Fold these 3 entries.
Entry 1:
Amino acid sequence: MKKIKILIADDHALIRDGVRSLLSKNKELVVAGEASNGTDAVEMYHTLKPDLMILDISMPDINGMEVAQRILKSDTEAKIIILSMYDDEDYIDQCMEYGVKGYVVKNETGDELDFAVKNVLKGQNYFSSQVQKVIFRKYSSHVSRRKQKESDVKLTSREVEIIRLIAEGFTSQQMADKLFISPRTVETHRANLMKKLIAKNAIELVRKAREMQILT
Amino acid sequence: MSKATILIVEDSFIVSYHLQATLENEGYTVVGKCDSGEAAIEFISKTSPDIVLMDIMLNGQLDGIQAASLIKNRFNVPVIYITALTDKDTINRAKHTEPYGYVTKPFEDREIFTVIEMALYKHDIESRLRQSEEKYFSTVNCISDAVVAIDRSYQISFMNPSAIAVTQWTLEEALGKPVMEILHLKDEITHDSPVNPIQCPIGMGNLSRMPDELVLVGRHGREIPIGESSLSPLLDSRGNFMGLIVVFKNMSEKRDHQNLILELERSRKAALIEGQEKERWRIAKDLHDGLGQMLNAIKMNAKLVVQNDSEGLNLSRLLDEAIQESVRISENLLPAKLRDFDLSVCLRSLCGSIAKTTGVNISYESLGENFKMIQSQKVNFHRITQEAVNNAIKHAQASSISVQLYEGNDMVRLSIEDNGRGITHDDALSGRNGLINMRDRAEILGGKLTIESDQRRGTMIIVEVPLEKLVLNEKN
């Protein structure tokens, strides 16, 4: 029977050895190649055409996220499992966006990597329990933030002051003179307010502020 | 005092002989007698007499007036005409050679002695005056300060070469022109010049220093910073106001020098901070990618050999703690994200983690594009944010902080605003390093840091970096 080809990309020989021994328990698998940097990883993927790739993020030249992005751009079906030290939402997010099929954090048990390999080879996605926790936390905070955003926009006292003066028809220079701050600062406030209240101009800004009862 | 030496230029031998005898009798020394203008010039070029007695009718090509004119131009020797000619034309021609006397033949002996003595005295005084004038003139001409004299009607009456060089007007062009036209001054900072600062002191007629930080706009629009300027009134012997002397220095070189020093200081600071960050980065990387990975590998290997009993679990837990610790130290030194993500993601993450550990409400907004800046620039923005947010929490006791990043097509602007009690005097003193560090980093970025702070409104820190100062990585 033809064995399943695996490519390991990690700049640490110790980790590659560790992964190799973990995989060796499964007789159907064979490690077809090992890459120690990002450039080699991309190249070896294309020459070896492995059934599965286990990919680290932090590598000396180009990082694993970029490696995944490059590979998945030309081969959307590529089966890539990220094995990284990072359990941070930004890393996980980015990798999922690029389309990796699995993500396991390095300090998790070997079983997690086992599961990931098995599931991904079956054509499913697998995100380890630690990764799932991060994704869930992000989702819930996102929901609560969105709720909050809809109900009240948090303006600082300086911003409220500025919006009041805008409503009274003050120019930036006049506001600067009145508040003893530089016109540059006033402009910054103005720009930030437009963004916060999602307004295109001063008139819209004042209207929205009235609607939100920032201005009475 | 020994009597003067005299050259007689006279075509009549008899007159010449008589003159010599008369003069020598009085104690003068006649050093020579010539009968032509040519011979006289030849003589003077070898032996300079104190005075020349010159007939107008002479042998040779030149007449006495022509000869006197040449002598006046070439030698500093006074000439007295002794002649029988008294017609208007001759006298008119003769006066243009500025003779020291005009004696008509026949003459009394006394008369000639008086004229000679007067001429010698006058010549002596004039020589001394000319010498001192030359001395002053050459002093004024060779000093590096620009010197401009202005008369009572605000017109230029003199400029030395330094002033000519600065204003780019030639002396001929400038003379008689209104001072406003030649000394076109304006304030270096405000760029306005409602009144030429020179005119006020002229009106008031008192001594004054000119304001500092003036620029002189040269004839061709070139702006030159001037400084150390002074205005002195020019008074005549009776104390009447005659005009003004303006003295100033061209400060371009000094300014360039100062700028160079500032630039060196800036690059020294930049190198220092960059070195520090590189070192932090190196250690963080070693901890994270080196030690951290090794611990992970150990954990993996341990899994293979150690049983899943309580000892095994304990070992695994210890290894996890060691891994987390190495990650924590590494992240404290320099967050790994700065290597892998855009600035916006890094700042959002920074705000999130500070909010989580302190419980302070930190909102983060990002608008505009997401530039792919090089790491060192991201690090500087990151450190400024970190410093500002930590100051707001620690020193200003803010309960709400708003961080906003705008990446537009003209600049990147980062603003950090809090509702704390502002930067107090004590904070400014104790937290000096923090504020200076933020300012240094903004400067290294090629941008500007503005701090607005008061007790009622809290603090707002703005960093603006023009787009052309950003170094972007190539887009993927």
Note: The CA atoms of residues 411 and 468 of chain B lie 8 Å apart.
Entry 2:
Amino acid sequence: MKKGLIYLLFALPLTGWSQETDSTSVPPVSPAFYFDYGKAAGSVIPEYQKWEGGFELIFLGRIQGVVELGQWKLNPDAIENGHYWVEGTYTRFGVGYIPYVDAGSRIGVGFRYATSSYSDRGDYTILSGSDLQPDIVETFDRNNLSATWYEAVFYSDKAVNKWLTLGFTFRVRFMQSYDAFDDPNTMIIPGFGRAGDKTVPAVNLFLKIEPF
Amino acid sequence: MVRTALFLFLLILAGACDPCRDCGPLTYEPTVALIFVDAELDEDEEIKETIASDVTIFWAELAAEIPFEEGLKEFDTPLSNSTNGSTYSIGIGEASYQLALTYEVFRELDVDRRMLVRAQNIQAESHSFDSLVFSCNTVDCLDKETTITCYF
């Protein structure tokens, strides 16, 4: 696993570089901004507000250094006999190798390290079946929570014109650590997904602007 | 590629929508099943479990009698939803017995996303029966899955 990762990060870029036929036309560094329109479209549902964007530098036309920022504010149906809210922001840092496979398309792989800062709250009611003892009506409110995880990323894009590019990433997230509780545990971690899962697959649909 | 992306997006959106059809308070109380058996019966004689008309169970801490339906042979006796033990005075015919249970109350979000209050490691702290036999379906002796046969 580690050897494969090292190959992807270091050996593969060098292999691709040796096959470049016209490297002089590639700028040494070019910036790009991207916006996750898939999450924005999903945010038409008031209970599922997700926003994400990012900034990247592409070195030598193929090596990607990226910072991704996002915010989730969710009110999922996580407790049948109660309510649950979670909100927070997350940041991902990473690198990728995204060479052109033809004139307007890139395919690549990458790696991200992510941190999330969030809070959750909720309530639930459990009625006593016998009516002999008091019902349980409880609330919880937990702030300053954090989580970290890693992501393996598959990347694909296609240029729409000189400045705009459409694409997607497929990711597998691997949880490193998060603030856990006895039930009700944190159920969703902004930027990651379901808290109980050690690995989570995800897809991002993005519109990228490359101004230069 | 755009079609693939659109398909994946719709797939994720469909998975994200999981409407709560019946959100609201839930009625749930941890219980343990009690069965009362006359220990003086001959071995050849058919075991007769005591039915509800002969039994009264009084919850000492709450100073309340637990109501049961007529004709029951197995008494789903409520456990505390807030403390780790409860004591019962049990009347069977003219006789009276004591049963003190200890357990650990905890919260559980089950697979149906219901927040429950449950009890585990149910044990007898003391009793005045001839003997007790615990039958636990799980190693943790959970509520709803534990039966105590009380021989008197």
Note: Residues 20-151 of chain B form one domain.
Entry 3:
Amino acid sequence: MAMTAIDRSHKVDKVLGTITALRGVTAAAIIDSDGLVTHVRRDFEINTDALGAAVQIAFGSARRASDHVAQGATHMVLVENKDGIVMLAPLSRGFVLALVGDSSAMLGAVRFEVKQTVPELNTIFA
Amino acid sequence: MHWLESQVERLHGLSETLARAADCKQARQSFREAVEDVAAAVVRRDGVTACFVCHDGLLIETAGRAPDFEALSAMTQHWMVAGKEAALTLSLGKVRQMVIVGHEHKLALFVIGQLAVGILSPSAVVLGRALAH
């Protein structure tokens, strides 16, 4: 039986909840191809409009950079900042998973979880 | 059974369960929690300086004190690649452990599925004895 929109939304929220339970991860969001945030879980106030637009710009730039150096599809974008990290991973149908972590986030743990979570989210969005 | 051996076997079992699991999320959480518990328990042993867990050269968990955990995890990836190549060439089978002994410190590395667990100690420490019980 096809998943209803409510089922899909509930599953996505659950996945984002698992991700934000990781140490140091302060926000997780799904952004659509137009840069709109469709789902978000966060520990702090965040301008979701700005986040969505920034994510799609950043991811688009990374993808073009990869094209320029002929390295194929972009699987992950990592931005390491003074006070934490931002990690982006493409999903099916132009969606992007975005994570924000503070300085206590373990990069390897977050990346490992994202790699396992992307197929799960792609199944939900299929 | 040797304490560390039993912990490593348990982690291997959980890693295999994760690989086969229908409900990956629960299996992954169990595996991650078990790995974190082992790292914390290992570092409490006399003679152990630090313990870390990494994946693809990036840190997943740290315990104890080391001058540079990030360097340890990055170099672990180097050693793993070299070790795997050597093991393949020499038909040793899958790499499970490596020990690198320096003049001052030593590093024992255990491969558990997609993760590596590293245990750092002064060279003089006999890790087999320190982690036996």
Note: Chain B touches chain A through 18 residues (CB under 8 Å).
